[in-house]
Amino acid sequence: MRSRTATWFETKIRYEKMMEDGMQKKVTEQYVVDALSFTEAENTIIEEMSSYISGEFKITDIKPASYGEIFFSDMDKDDKWYKAKLQFITIDEKTEKEKRSTVTYLVQAGSLNMAVKHIEEVMGGTMLDYVISGVNETQIMDVFEHHAKKEEPKQADEKPEYLQGETTTEETK
Is 48 helix (H, G, I), strand (E, B) or coil? Predict the structure, then answer.
């Protein structure tokens, strides 16, 4: 189980999907993407889904997601996504009263019970007092993380970009 904090967007995409019986059906599916802006979220979902979709598609919704973290599972049977609300309990020093703050997490699991186990596995390693106030299955199909593109290192004889196309005095000699 690994967790990731980032800026997440929930996106919905509508397209014609080939069903198991061979029929084409228009479906709207929900995905979560790691992006810094609405534009980047749209580009990411188009890029990620283009290998699965043939034909026309439409992005029908993009909205910021309120997930504090996403817990990823590496188990094959964990194929669903659950929205979990945790309340963290702190004591207000001035009033000496219990104070609760709610944080929403997205958890990858195969069942509701597994989602709770994954939450306890991750949160059990912390010193925080918490209560799981709710766990609900979502319609999210998948989560796409941002992967930085690795730039090819420049070769020693390569000219800087601003000099490309120009000849220097050394080259004309």
Answer: helix
